[in-house]
Amino acid sequence: MQLSLPTFTPDQLAPGRFVHRRQLREVLITEARQLDDDYFALGAQWPREHPFYSTHERRADSALVAETIRQVTILLAHTMYGVPLDAAFLMPSLSAKTIAAPAPWSEDEIMVQAQVVASGRTQEGPTSMRVSVRIEGGGQILGEGIGHARIVAPEAYARLRRNRPKRPIAVHARALQSRGHLLQWGRADRPVVVVDETDPVFFDHPLDHVPGMLLLEAVREGVRNLMRPHEVDLTSFDLVFARVVEFEPEITLEVDRCRQGNFAVALRQDGMTCVHGFAGAEG
């Protein structure tokens, strides 16, 4: 569907509460406008320098694309579909691919197009949203993906989680530094995921579970360990978040090479598969 896209000015970022971020430096979206029924355009401003995100040969960082999809989904739910700010979001699945651009692009001129399929409509908005996203920079497609959100009212979420309390932000959270290691390789084939609650990117607001972006980063690190060089990035991923991942017991990762550049991945906890899917990388 061809729609006329508006021009955005990246002067002001969206309020952090609309993308479930407290630190302004982690907010990526500037504004959103409706183009047609369930079609939207959004402006975004990606960080020019960030210890966690980086670009590779004119290819957008896969974790940055994933976080953009996450923020777009949450922002549209709150601002365009009437979902209250105290609603809980669970993401049953997330998929994306990055595309190497033929020409340079600027991080502060990112345009996002989104199409929403919302279901389970209630007085407090939908209970499910499937958001298809295309990300462009300099008129070039940088990435595409789909985020699926399950939206739960606070009372229902408390019952679902058996009133499990949220862990507060670490008082002395460490400064944002270079990307560290999330995996401990004590076991050659099943590394353990390290959950550092002082990490200011993954834990900038209270949570009662391990965030999906941390789990995606663990998958990325596990794939990198099998690639040469280790600095390669994911070019695609398709993950199913089958269960909420708790802070304990330990989380283990399995990565199996299917064919050149493609891997089957799984995160397990207490004998159960919590996250599974596939990831692609080039190296």
User: Which shape, going by the Cα principal axes?
Assistant: globular
Instruction: State the helix count.
Output: 3
Head-to-tail CA distance between termini: 35 Å
What is the tally of beta strands? 12
Assign the CATH architecture of the largest domain. Roll
Q: Within the CATH hierarchy, at the fold level, what is the topology of the largest domain?
A: Thiol Ester Dehydrase, Chain A
**What's the number of structural domains?**
2
> Biggest sheet, open or closed, and with what strands and sense?
10 strands, antiparallel
Class derived from helix and strand content: alpha+beta
The CATH first-level class of the largest domain comes to: Alpha Beta
Q: What is the radius of gyration? A: 18 Å
Residue-averaged pLDDT, rounded? 89
Strand fraction equals 25-35%
In spatial order, strands of the major sheet run 1-2-4-5-6-3-9-12-11-10
What is this entry, summarized?
The protein is an alpha+beta fold and 283 residues long. The protein has helices spanning 62-80, 154-160, 212-226; strands at 29-36, 39-44, 88-98, 110-119, 128-137, 140-152, 183-184, 192-193, 234-241, 251-259, 262-269, 272-281.
SSE order and pairing:
Elements: E1 29-36, E2 39-44, H1 62-80, E3 88-98, E4 110-119, E5 128-137, E6 140-152, H2 154-160, E7 183-184, E8 192-193, H3 212-226, E9 234-241, E10 251-259, E11 262-269, E12 272-281
Antiparallel strand pairs: 1-2, 2-4, 3-6, 3-9, 4-5, 5-6, 7-8, 9-12, 10-11, 11-12
